[in-house]
Design a protein that fits this description.
alpha+beta; four-stranded mixed sheet
């Protein structure tokens, strides 16, 4: 029953995304058939390359163009916006519990992870319950869930693997994309609140009007995703671990993104 319910949620989310986005340069795959007996959804084809693959193969200018288009895709999807109270304590407490139970002896820096949860707690005391912009969004917005191809000189982006139907803070999805890009490439800097300037700058034209509280909430979620990536991919993958640690250290020492965006 749980699997069937999740399939239904994913299918409804895809249907809603297609109603919002339509057939233009910002698209979503279409659910063609829900096979509940097999636990699967048959979907239309997503043209092109995964954004992650395209991003890693691109030069710096092309990377910025991909990030800008991803920001535009998210803006197009989240067009029907309202305000909801920001919830911060639940995520802070879950990550703090995860840190407490993790064995850092063989691979990681417990002091850094503990510092990150303390910083999240300080932000939660400021932000919890304050209004932030929310909308129907992707729910798992990162570079492996977007496909890109060129048509008539434009980059067409197609979203896959939608996770939910209920409105969420828009900055939750935006922050996940930014943090995944941050740890996907050894760029040597995370100077802007834990993020690389070249990765953050392309979203300015699209999201420059985010209210201050939303920018602070974006900063909160950047730290949350970085810490989660550290506890999962960072533990398993020694290659990306220094990148995540660098980003997390800079994030811990930054007030917020309100002055950056």
């Amino acid at each position: 029953p749980d699997a069937q319910q999740r399939l239904g949620v994913v299918a409804k989310g895809l249907e809603l995304a297609n109603l919002i986005l339509g057939p233009g340069v910002n698209r979503a795959v279409q659910p063609l058939r829900v096979a509940t007996d097999q636990g699967a959804i048959v979907m239309s084809h997503a043209q092109g390359l995964g954004m992650r693959q395209a991003f890693l193969a691109a030069d710096p200018a092309a990377r910025q163009e991909l990030i800008r288009r991803a920001a535009e895709w998210l803006a197009a999807l989240t067009v029907d916006r309202s305000e909801i109270p920001f919830t911060a304590w639940g995520r802070t407490q879950r990550l703090a519990g995860w840190v407490a139970e993790s064995d850092f002896g063989s691979w990681g820096d417990r002091q850094l992870a503990t510092r990150a949860t303390a910083r999240m707690g300080a932000l939660a005391r400021i932000l919890h319950g304050r209004p932030v912009l929310a909308a129907f969004s992707h729910g798992d917005f990162h570079s492996e869930n977007l496909f890109v191809h060129r048509a008539d000189g434009q980059i067409v982006m197609t979203g896959i693997d939608f996770e939910l139907r209920n409105p969420i803070p828009i900055v939750r999805d935006l922050s996940k994309m930014l943090t995944w890009l941050e740890v996907d490439d050894d760029h040597g800097t995370s100077a802007l609140a834990g993020l690389t300037p070249q990765n953050l700058e392309p979203i300015y034209p699209v999201w420059r009007d985010l209210p201050k509280t939303d920018r602070q909430a974006l900063h909160f979620h950047v730290g949350g995703w970085l810490l989660q990536l550290y506890l999962t991919r960072g533990e398993r993958n020694a290659k990306i671990r220094p990148d995540v640690e660098r980003s997390l250290r800079v994030w811990c020492g930054t007030e917020d993104l309100a002055a950056v965006l």
